[in-house]
Design goal:
The complex is a heterodimer of chains A (170) and B (409). Chain A is 24% helix and 25% strand. With 170 residues, chain A is α/β, with parallel strands linked by helices. In chain A, the strands form 2 sheets. Chain A has a 5-stranded mixed sheet with strand order 1-2-5-4-3, covered by helices on one side. In chain A, helix 1 packs antiparallel against helix 2. Chain A is elongated and about 70 Å long. Chain B folds into 2 domains: 2-58, no CATH class; 66-304 and 336-371, Cytochrome-c3 Hydrogenase, chain B, CATH 1.10.645.10. Chain B is built from 18 helices and 8 strands. In chain B, strands 1-2-3 form a 3-stranded antiparallel sheet. In chain B, helix 6 runs antiparallel to helix 7 and helix 7 (143-164) runs antiparallel to helix 8. Classes of the chains: A alpha/beta (170), B mainly alpha (409). The interface between A and B is large, with 39 and 44 residues.
Amino acid sequence: MNEKLLPAVKALSERFAAESHEYAGEVWLTVSPEHIVDACKAARDEFKFNLLTNLSAVDYWPQETPRFHVVYNLFSSTDQVSLGLRVPLDGNAPHLPSLIPVYPGANWWEREGWDMFGIRFDGHPDLRRILMPADWEGHPLRKDYPLGYEEVQFTFNVGDVEIRKPRPRE
Amino acid sequence: MTETQEINLEELRHLVSERALTGETMLLNMGPQHPSTHGVLRLLLELDGEIVVNCIPDIGYLHTGVEKNMESKIFQKAEPMTDRLDYLNPIGNNLTFCLAVEKLCGIDVPPRAQVLRVMLAELERLSSHLVWLGTSALDLAAMSLFLYTFREREMILDIKELISGSRMMTTYIRPGGLWRDVPVEFEAAVRRYCDVQEARLDEYEALLTNNALFRDRTIGIGVINTQQCYEWGVTGPVIRATGEPFDVRKIQPYSGYEEYDFEIPTEKGGDIFSRYMVRVREMRQSIRIIRQALDKLPFGPVRSNNRKFIPPPRSELGTSMEAVIHHFKLWTEGFHAPAESVYMMNESPRGLLGVYIEGNGGPTGHRIHYHTPSFVNLQILPLLSKGHFVADLVGIIGSIDIILGDCDR
């Protein structure tokens, strides 16, 4: 572990009962959803992590507890180190506090998290779909959402496939 | 049809000012088929006469589900999809993906491949900046520059065709090195390009930098400061134009960038003109890096010798049973990545490009996420454009250099 990262990891894991995990030189802290805003605030104000470089989520379906991990990567431009944070969430109506008060730039990434994974960010001022159309059903990056494909038409089933082809709604 | 519109207005009500509700200001749709929006970007503008009161970007028109698709493909087959994200920086996207896979699996890269990667990434940066320079000057009514920059970009496309056979989507950089070594003509072609480009950069600057019309349209327009950039996560030329020397190539060097002698150009203004100056000066630095790389290009293999991840050379297949097995396994099943996650940062022409890869012990990525600079840059557009004319908005969109393929993924 980078020695500049050591005090931040130590303080944050003690204060927020976070487990730390290291792989390939990167440190990941697992923080519970109620602590994530405070942890980020402490990281920003006390340990100079001034840049949010990643916000995304991972789906571990069919596992239900936890089903999702929300992943944050913070970067400190003064110490030039990065720190990862993971927040485990259960599968039933997942939600966690929004990070906008700490990093305003989280706004669109959280909208993407809602759009793609159906994770609600409490306190978000504008939680609309961002990439998918507003009337879309389902959250595409969930693992139980099927990967769409086009059926191959052969001579013997050309008519059947033609009927089954998905079409845009009227 | 009318029903849909009403629902949309209701949804956007919290984003527009009170004056829009009484009809004092006008809501105007700009895009998605507007030539100056650099792709399919829709902006909902709230206008007070000609002045922008609010700007609500609406993206997703170019959403192709690349991340979802990549999760179902083995790493080698997922890589060509990264080319299609930011179509002006395919080599940079490949590089980020390969760096992340190499970090995840612990694959080494031979020195010759490292140097070639740097050289190609810088050529790609030049090519991207050339397109940016041409199109954004075109938005500000400087027509002829567009033709000149595309003339020079053609030389870079020719070099890419020379090495990989493809002019745009090369997939030339592979995990563990490169697809194959560069041909003998490569060095001369790159040197010739560097010489030509350096002289032509002076010509571009002669057209724009002291052009009174261009300066009037750009100085003091779309201003942002360093503090705001950090808050909103904005990087690349936008943050460097505010005087902050933030460049991933310097602060977290990858592919041996620490061995090159180059500067991070910064400007003080934070406006469109500063962003223009930063990019032009950055192009000179890129040429400098390419020249250094050409001078130190070592001989040797361009692919790692780690046979558990990298297919053996074709010549071995006739003589070695081991090689045949590895070849078969790697091209059918793929290599297995551990169930861990890595985050890799890279400096794309537009700013910090991050890729998050999580493996699941199998040959596909469990989650591959691209943290793209265009998405972040577009997010600050409302901040930059408030209080400016609609005509200036066009210049501001050009100056943050968005690529919608990169933004919508």
